Amino acid sequence: MSWEGIDHALNRVRGEADRIALNLTDLDNHVGHRLLRGADLVGGTRRRWEHADRHVHRLRAVYEAFRRVVDRIADLRASAGGPGDQAHLTALLNGASVALPAREVPLRDRGPLYTGRESVTLAEAVARMSADYEEATEVISAVETAWDALHPRLAELDAMWQEVGTLVDMVELGEEEYESLRADLEAVGATVRRDPLAFVERGRVDTSSLEGLRLRLERVRGELRDALRMRDSYAESVERLRHAIADVGLVLARARALREQVVAKIASPAAVEVPDPVPLLLAGVGGMDLLRDQGRWRELGACLGELQHAIHEAADDAREREANLTGLLERRAELRGRLDAYRAHAARLGLAEDERLAGLYRRAHWELWAAPCDLREATVALSSYQRTLQEIGGTGFPSDRTTPGAGASDGESDGGVNR
């Protein structure tokens, strides 16, 4: 090599040595690397880290040998001047000048002349260091990525567990109440800290197990919060329940009275039954009192929610039955009003005394004013009267009325027949 070539090569390897030294410093200071060095790892993470750590140690050893050769070349160049020095420097820069430390090689892989020592060129040393660096940082980065995804979730679980513990003390439950949940949290926490790569599948961090624990903790925390509120506001809660049950009773009373009217006035469709859930609901309140006397606040919280739901359903059902019964009476009134409207229209056409229409009118009137009446038969009779009036009169009809007229109101009050 010319002196110019030697200087150019020396500057290049010096730059490589400096960059590698800087990267090694960064690697030492890397948070993930420090955590791995101090962690008590197990499982796949430990195997991966032991593999990576061997590459880190080999990287340092090769770098030290590489740096010694670079420094030696720099010192020789500073005092060199003759052709012999030029040849020596060329050999150091291009030849196998980096003596690597001995490494363990299995006996089956050794030849008869194996000495345990190896020398490589500066370029080969850089290539080996680069490969070792990539191997080490790949594992460190994988663990760091896993920890970055897992540790915040684990911290959230720990905070939730602390809150659960506080609530357990406030509600005065036994320590063993959530033993299985505590054990699961400890197991997951130990895995996150000691074997984070166990959560990595196909390069992605699987947090489903932590999410499952979070949902369990949320449910438990909600139950305990309800229990605490139950303890602090039991009297008010029970009072609200009793008022809500009383409101259900009022709706049911109206529905029962309405059903008596419907049964007396309408035979078909049959009136819906009106069951009475109030005694069962009140019994539920009595059961809550027993739980309160035993200090079982968590069960009381769950019982309160169930009873509130049952009262809500009972109220909805009672209102639905009341609306159904009201609808039957409104339907009868509507049919009566329509019959009156059709008869008035026939009178305007001069057909009120027509024999066919008169007979159909009497049938429809009987069906609607009988006690109890059959709304299905009445609807059929009314439709027959309407069709016949249209055939005979040959003109349009007034629109169907949905409310009874004056005549229908009179009939509604006294039924139009003796009852």
Structure description:
It is a single chain. With 419 residues, the chain is mostly helical. It has four domains: 3-103 and 115-145, no CATH class; 149-232, no CATH class; 234-326; 328-414, no CATH class. It is 76% helix and 4% strand. It contains 13 helices and six strands. It has helices at 3-29, 31-38, 43-79, 83-94, 122-171, 179-194, 208-232, 234-265, 278-293, 297-348, 355-369, 375-393, 406-414; strands at residues 98-100, 118-120, 200-201, 204-205, 266-268, 373-374. The strands form three sheets. A two-stranded antiparallel ribbon has the order 1-2. Strands 3-4 form a two-stranded antiparallel sheet. Strands 5-6 form a two-stranded parallel ribbon. Helix 5 packs parallel to helix 7 (208-232) and helix 10 packs across helix 13 (406-414). The longest helix has 52 residues, at 297-348. It is elongated, with a radius of gyration of 47 Å. The termini are far apart.
Helix % is over 70%
N→C terminal distance = 131 Å
Overall structural class, as computed from helix and strand content, comes to: mainly alpha
The ordered H/E elements are: HHHHEEHHEEHHEHHHEHH
User: How are the strands ordered across the major sheet?
Assistant: 1-2
Mean pLDDT: 87
